[in-house]
Design a protein that fits this description.
mainly alpha; 3 domains; 3 strands; TRIM8/14/16/25/29/45/65 coiled-coil region domain-containing protein; zinc; E3_ubiq-ligase_TRIM/RNF; coiled coil; zinc-finger
Length: about 220
């Protein structure tokens, strides 16, 4: 008699146990899938930022090379001009000394014959520009733009990541619960520009798969 009385309750408990075990199995599967998605996102993020750093390093090296090349050309032209001016100064000093000697001669014929013709020197002034401050300003603007871009994108990604939760859909006991979750999903779609949203209904269960194609193609979180 007692067994007959307790049997319905036992069956109810066992059914709940089976449901909970099934739920644990599904949650474990979802957690594993979630972890794989997280690891993929971390790997892709590390790869992206590593490549970004390399790209910045290449740009830095290229800019420094251009500045150094310009420096070499300007210094080479200036040094060449200085050597030419030194030669002209030496020549003029020699001629000045000759004129000083000639000024003391008493031989008028020798004076007329030795009177030098003034040399003609080309006047080629070289101006070296030191206005490199614009480079610093340009780099500062580039740094600001890059920081703002990274900040905005990371904030957007952060907003998206907050919507990734592992929730069994069968916990939606009411239509209102379902609509509230749908509202959250729609917000996620608008934030992430998600291109894939698939709803499938099976026997006694429902699954949802979200795929953020613009962030990481092929990576999605499946909830059952």
């Amino acid at each position: 008699m007692k067994q007959m009385t307790l049997k319905p309750t036992q069956m109810k408990y066992r059914k709940i146990i089976q449901e909970r075990e099934k739920e644990i199995k599904k949650l474990r599967k979802s957690v594993d899938s979630y972890k794989r998605s997280v690891q993929t996102a971390v790997t892709n993020s590390e790869s992206f930022f590593t490549e970004l750093i390399r790209s910045i390093e290449r740009s830095r090296s290229e800019l420094i090379r251009l500045i150094r090349d310009q420096e070499k050309q300007a210094v080479s032209r200036a040094e060449g001009r200085m050597e030419q001016l030194k030669l002209e100064i030496n020549d003029l000093q020699r001629r000045d000394a000759e004129l000083d000697q000639l000024s003391h001669t008493q031989d008028h014929i020798q004076f007329l014959q030795s009177f030098p013709v003034p040399p003609e020197y080309t006047n080629q002034p070289i101006t070296i520009s030191t206005r490199f401050s614009f480079i610093g300003k340009s780099i500062s603007k580039l740094k600001e733009k890059l920081e703002n871009f990274c900040k905005e994108e990371i904030e957007q990604i952060s907003d998206i990541v907050t919507y990734f939760e592992i929730i069994p859909l069968k916990l939606w006991k009411t239509r209102q619960d379902f609509l509230q979750y749908c509202s959250a999903v729609l917000v996620l779609l608008m934030k992430s520009k998600c291109e894939e949203l698939t709803w499938t209904a099976g026997k006694g269960e429902t699954s949802v798969r979200l795929c953020l194609l613009d962030m990481n193609p092929g990576v999605g979180q499946e909830l059952k």
